[in-house]
Design brief:
This protein is mainly alpha-helical and 444 residues long. Helix content is 68%, strand content 4%.
Length: 444
């Protein structure tokens, strides 16, 4: 892919701020969704702050050579629920989710040290294009349900259900999607580089028009945006950081609880490790540079692990590299690392400003759903492009790709107690086993 801005390129300041804001929009929904799902007093603004800190740490470890943003990891949601469920109090639960992030981060650090000692060549044999390509596609395809599900939802809720007509929401979502497509393909110069910002803006305006008409006619079915969130809104507020709850929470911590946390987090960290490799392989194909060799997988793992620990200290959520961020790089062809770093600083700053955080949180699900159809689709297509390099006339390759695609798309997953192997992890493991079994077969 021909990049407009390469890794070391530095856009002019006005453009840089706009590009960075686009990355913020790309990672926003998922980053603040995790604390919203977990509840128990977790703060969305603190998670945004933690993701910014984690990303900067990641960039430092990778020597500013890997253009990807870190955000709240969905893989650890069940682990976080387990931490709160087994805690003596909510405050102890906040200590627990941080301890869990430390366990997960240590797994990354240990693996990074092993890779530093033995190198990454063994990974090339274990994870060839026939394995990584379809796995990357599964990452995008596994998120397809989230994008399509959001497409029919607004922000006005009645009894916990979206109140607006799904058809109204779909119209707003499709307006957003087609706006992104038009700006990306037909836009001139700057428009091509910020299709998500422009698409979200057009979608938000459309949702606003429907909502204003709905309020004027007292028709809740037309109300897409919940403007009530702006009432009694302050201007400046310090996020409710996780570490602020530690003093009281440590009273409810014991060895049994720590063991429960370890069991809930450590196995999941190995699963996320596989996704980490797939994300970086995907990003490598986009920027035409093997990130597993330079800056090196050991550095990306260290950055991810330490960044997760630091991010959880503030926001409670372990971080992970975001497919949305990779998709944004692919669509805009902007791989400038300074853009990612600026986006991280932007997240840290805006987490203190209530109006901005509230506005971002008010963007309707349907609008973000329209954007995510493009984002997740590009991730899936990036994986398919990797498969182009694979000779599928060879049965040994065909079986590997087929096993990964079908088990991944079919949602095959396994649960052992409080530990769940996601469909992506299961598909990857089966693909590795199939490739190991068949790789020595002679070419047909």
């Amino acid at each position: 892919m021909k990049l407009v801005y390469n890794i070391n390129d530095k856009p002019k300041l006005p453009q840089l701020l706009i590009f960075a804001f686009q990355q913020v929009l790309a990672i926003l929904a998922a980053t603040i969704a995790v604390p919203a799902i977990i509840g128990n007093g977790m703060s969305q603004s603190a998670a945004l702050f933690g993701a910014g800190v984690g990303t900067i740490i990641y960039q430092l470890f990778t020597k500013f050579k890997s253009p990807v943003y870190l955000g709240s990891s969905f893989a650890f949601i069940n682990s976080m629920f387990a931490a709160f469920a087994g805690a003596a109090s909510a405050s102890a639960g906040h200590v627990g989710i941080f301890v869990g992030a430390v366990f997960a981060g240590l797994v990354y650090i240990v693996i990074a040290l092993v890779i530093k000692l033995v190198g990454v060549n063994w990974l090339e044999k274990l994870l060839p294009a026939a394995v990584i390509g379809p796995t990357v596609s599964i990452i995008g395809l596994s998120l397809a349900g989230n994008a399509v599900g959001d497409l029919s939802k607004g922000k006005v809720m009645v009894d916990g259900v979206s109140a607006c007509s799904p058809y109204v929401a779909i119209i707003c979502g499709l307006i957003t999607l087609f706006s992104v497509m038009i700006f990306s393909v037909y836009g001139k110069k700057m428009m091509k580089l910020i299709p998500f910002i422009l698409g979200i803006l057009v979608g938000y305006i459309a949702a606003t028009i429907f909502t204003v008409i709905g309020i004027a006619t007292d028709n809740v079915a037309l109300q897409v945006i919940n403007f009530s969130v702006f009432k009694d809104m302050g201007f400046f507020a310090i996020p409710d950081f996780t570490f602020l709850k530690f003093a009281e929470g440590f009273k409810g911590i014991n060895a049994s609880y720590i063991a429960t946390i370890a069991v809930a987090y450590i196995p999941v960290a190995f699963v996320v490790f596989a996704e980490h490799i797939a994300d970086h392989k995907n990003l490598s194909s986009i920027i035409d540079k093997d990130l597993l060799k330079e800056p090196g997988l050991h550095r990306t793992l260290l950055g991810d692990g330490v960044g997760s620990i630091a991010g959880a200290l503030f926001g409670g959520c372990p971080n992970t590299t975001y497919g949305e961020s990779v998709g944004c790089v692919a669509i805009t062809r902007n791989a400038s690392v300074i853009t990612i770093t600026t986006a991280a600083i932007m997240c840290i700053v805006i987490s203190f400003f209530s109006p901005f955080v509230t506005f971002l949180a008010s963007i309707p699900n349907c609008v973000m759903g329209g954007v995510c159809i493009a984002l997740y689709g590009f991730i899936a297509v990036s994986g398919l492009k990797m498969i182009q390099k694979v000779d599928l006339n060879q049965s040994k390759n065909l079986f590997v790709v087929a096993v990964i695609l079908i088990t991944g798309i079919g949602g095959f997953s396994l649960t052992f107690g409080k530990v769940t192997l996601t469909s992506i992890a299961c598909a990857l493991i089966l693909g590795i086993l199939a490739n190991t079994l068949l790789s020595r077969a002679k070419d047909e």
